[in-house]
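mind reviewing these tokens:
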Amino acid sequence: MLFYLILDTNYLILTMTILQIDTATTVCSVALAKDGKTTAVKQVDQRNIHAEVITVFIDELLAETGSHYKDIDAITVSCGPGSYTGLRIGISTAKGLCFALDKPLIAIETLESMAHGIIDNPALLSSFNFQLSTPLLCPMIDARRMEVYTAIFNTNGKNIVPTAAEIIDEHSFADLLKNNQILFFGDGAEKCREVLGHNPNAQFLPGFTNSATHLSKKAAEKFARKDFEDVAYFEPFYLKDFIAGKKSV
């Protein structure tokens, strides 16, 4: 629901509430944001628990904040790439809520939301000793073995290198690392430290966790532009086909 606060006859302030969902990795996260700022979040980093807890988290989040489903103006979801199963659960939940509540769906690519988890936290960036002007940001999502889903952004959020599935070796990002410092982060970054860490321009942020809170600012911008998805036809951004593993005997 959109609430309008009338301060006088000339001004009108719009308050916008968005429910945000991120299940693209091992983290299951839901958040509420008002006017682009996170007001509450519930999340857990545990594999294969998303289907069990996501609707519980949403109900608890609304109850704990004194909110109701009718108060929600839009649903935002982190749409991939990432875990095939996690994405299906998160996006199915988001689409179900949009249909039930007759609310618009906002989709944000997961790597972009991860980049905003850094961009929107300037204190975090300033804690690094970057010598070569402004760094580039390289979020990484684990895609098994030495493969990651990754992209590169500048600190204004501009996509410098598009999203791709990359097998990382000692030559990866070599051209960019010649003249730029790059901050690598996400659940795929730590396994790449051994092959990339020899380069003095490569820095790593340990312990970065995906979160629905990273969607807040971008979701508000998309809402203002009415940049909504077609709920009936929207699908996750898998990037590559799902390959089922063999069951152990």
Summary: The longest strand covers residues 37-45. The domain at 3-110+210-225 is CATH 3.30.420.40 (Nucleotidyltransferase; domain 5).
